[in-house]
Amino acid sequence: MIRSVVRGTGQALPRRIMKNADFEGMVETSDEWIVQRTGIRQRHIASDDETTASLGEAAARAALANGGLTPDDIDLIVLATSTPNNTFPATAVEIQQRLGMRHGYAFDMQAVCSGFVYAVTTADAYIRAGLAKRVLVIGSETFSRILDWNDRSTCVLFGDGAGALVLEATEGAGTIADRGVLAASLRSDGTHKEKLYVDGGPSTTGTVGHLRMEGREVFKHAVGMITDVIEATFSQAGITAEDLDWFVPHQANKRIIDASAKKLGIAEEKVVITVDKHGNTSAASVPLALSIAAVDGRIKRGDLVLLEAMGGGFTWGAVLVRW
């Protein structure tokens, strides 16, 4: 059977680093308060000349170089983002243009923080259907553009960045030993919209709006939803937490990550953590963490890797990949 195998990974971060202490003159908060409740110590904030498209392009070029590929080798670009450069066209098309691609096709996917997990699952479906041989999957965000910098409950949580990977069609035996995407589970529940959303949009207010979140409500639902979808993915693949080599979760809050790993029985040393350095970069958080762990040598060929995310909507999902 056809498997979607990871050929290369890449990342990009804005130049400016904003540490927790930088917020102390802006809102009523402190480094100790932020670290204790979230695990975040710093985040990257995009400058005026850094956009979702430019960061996505940089991550894409890094992933192509890592895989020994060029834009000519790519058939499809799927960009996960909630902060596009324009309402339309899709920012994926702008990245396509920036890469010099005049062939193939490109589109955006919007599932907020779950976007990259949704995008990988979508890219895998296109590959298995024979609609593409190589897909560039990108998560890129500039959440700093939609933050209310007077709201201390949200402005300290988010950062900007991008991550990417290339998936390539490869023949597999159809067993758990195959390399590539092995199983996936996606969920959504629109009844939770008001718990995490942006209070603007073209069809409602005609404005971009600001991010709004009921933090306690999100936290309350997160662990249960995450463990549910991961257990469904384990069931599909016929594995348990003990079989995993690495767990790469959405980097939103270290307390949520720790609680989820503990509930699932995933050993602490198998969890990739980058939230302390990047904050919550929404759809970029999973590919950023994935790229860092692959580049520094932690994730090796043959490793069994679980990706997971939850975002506004709510949306949530998990993907199991053999590296």
Automatic annotation (TrEMBL):
Positions of the UniProt region annotated as ACP-binding: 251-255
Keywords for this protein: Acyltransferase, Cytoplasm, Fatty acid biosynthesis, Fatty acid metabolism, Lipid biosynthesis, Lipid metabolism, Multifunctional enzyme, Transferase
Domain annotation Beta-ketoacyl-[acyl-carrier-protein] synthase III N-terminal: ranges: 107-190
Residues annotated as catalytic: 113, 250, 280
Superkingdom in the source lineage: Bacteria
EC class of the enzyme, as a word: transferase
CDD domains the UniProt entry points to: KAS_III
Signal peptide feature range: none
One Pfam family, short name: ACP_syn_III_C
InterPro entries, sorted: ACP_syn_III_C, ACP_syn_III_N, FabH, Thiolase-like
Beta-ketoacyl-[acyl-carrier-protein] synthase III C-terminal domain sequence ranges: 235-323
Subcellular location, record wording: Cytoplasm
EC numbers: 2.3.1.180
First-listed, main subcellular location of the protein, grouped into a coarse class: cytoplasm
Pathway: Lipid metabolism; fatty acid biosynthesis
Catalytic reaction equation(s): malonyl-[ACP] + acetyl-CoA + H(+) = 3-oxobutanoyl-[ACP] + CO2 + CoA
SUPFAM superfamilies, alphabetized: Thiolase-like
Protein's job: Catalyzes the condensation reaction of fatty acid synthesis by the addition to an acyl acceptor of two carbons from malonyl-ACP. Catalyzes the first condensation reaction which initiates fatty acid synthesis and may therefore play a role in governing the total rate of fatty acid production. Possesses both acetoacetyl-ACP synthase and acetyl transacylase activities. Its substrate specificity determines the biosynthesis of branched-chain and/or straight-chain of fatty acids.
UniProt free text on domains: The last Arg residue of the ACP-binding site is essential for the weak association between ACP/AcpP and FabH.
Family as reported in the entry's similarity comment: Belongs to the thiolase-like superfamily. FabH family.
Subunit-level organization: Homodimer.
Name of the protein in its database record: Beta-ketoacyl-[acyl-carrier-protein] synthase III
Gene: fabH
